[in-house]
Each structure stands twice: as C-alpha cells, then as structure tokens.
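The data are set out underneath:

___
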Amino acid sequence: MHSLITTQYFKEYRKELGFTNQGDVKKFFAGKDITPTVDYNYIELLNTRLVEIIKKINSLVSSNIKISNIDKFCTDTVELVFNKLRDNNIIQRLNNQGRRPEQVYFSWMRGYIIANYFLQALSQIFEVSLEDISLIGDDDLVNIESFKRTPTADLEIALNNGNKLRIEVQSGFVGVNDIKQHKVLEAKRIFESESISSLAIHFDLFNGQVAFIKLDEIEDDSVNWITRQQMEGQTVFNIDQNYFSWKLTETPPSLDDIFAY
C-alpha cells in the first residue's frame, strides 16, 4: 500500500532534489538561475546604432543647439559609459520583463544619451547656464542595486527667480507618448512636501516633436488617463497632441512661448 501524499512529502522531495526554498526550485526548473552570457558583439552593434541615432538627430536640429564636436560627445556618452557598465558587471544583471540584458541596456542608453544631448537646449529654454542644471536621477553606473527605474526626476534646474524645478526627461521612439502614473504621483508628492514643481519634457523622436507637461498639475480625473494593455495593463497619462509645442528641426521655444511659469 502506498503512503499518503502530504505537504511534508513535498518538502522532503524538494530537499532530496537539493532545495529547501520553493522559489529556488521554480528557478531551477525554469532555468532562471542561469545568468545569460552577454553577447558583446551584439552590444557593439547596438553601440554603433546609438552613435548613428545621435548623429542623425544632430544633423537636423537647429544650429544653436547642435553639438559641434559630436564625435567627442558620442565617445563620452556611449563608449565611456559602456566601459563603466561593463567593468562594474552591470550589463549581465540587467533584466526587465524577460528581455535580454543587451536590449535593456540599449533602451536605457537611448534615454541617457537623449537627456544629455538636449541639456544645451534646456539651458536655452530656461535661460540658465549648464551649471544650473543638476543630475538627480537614481541610476548609478557602478552599483546594480541603485541602477534601476525609480520615480525620481532626472534633472533639477535652479531657475533665475531662485526657485527650483524638477525635470523628467522622456524619450519616445515609436510614436506612443505616455507618462507612467508613478511619475505623476511622485511629482505631486514633491510639490506637497517641498513646494518644487515638476515638468516632464517628452522627446517624441519618432515624429520629431517635444511636449512639455506640468506633472504636479495633472488632474486625477483627466480624460488622458488610460490603461495601456501592451504595458501589462499599466495606468498611464497619454500625452495629448496639444502638449507638443516644439518641432525638433526648429529653434527651441522660450518658456513664455510654452506657458507662463
């Protein structure tokens, strides 16, 4: 006669397999405990594409924000950043919803490069020097524990009137322009606790336009809040066309042209 199958048997069976933690058993059978080998030949091609992207953008923007030494900029923001991520073993530990680490790396690098490329444009729009624009995002190029997506804005600008302004720089590459809900919630929290406003600047590279959205003023009942099924059903703020006020091929607008702050 066979003995009863009990939860204790399950535990002993898994122990015989060599596991005392159920999560480790699941990872073992799914192969998720195996860190994929990073394909650095693939990354080399991706880095080449990053350089191509930024050079194409640099070729069509207004002359007053065009970067004269674009090769040096590409070296500083692509090659040197890649070297630092590789040397600190960051790349192979990148993962997001099952995507390959090379693809997560590429997505992050696109946003990083775009944010750095348009710093000169932001200094013109807000009529401040580059020294008045501070990087405050939580991405750390040497520490995997802090190299992650958080709601913290990317930049903080010290305005001429003495106030500070948080800037969330976003890049869109497929013509779908959204703001994740946690970015808006964080902006409202910062405004309530520190009286600092937050502005999202969304670069729609697919269509060559830029939007400016006051994050802490987005209404909770706005019709622009939608559920984006292709983003695991996340709630997002869809950026209406009316928010776009800058053609990338033209001179950056002044703050007064965008809205009265």
Q: What stands out?
A: The chain has a mean pLDDT of 89. The helical segments are 7-17, 22-30, 40-60, 70-87, 101-117, 119-125, 181-194, 255-258.
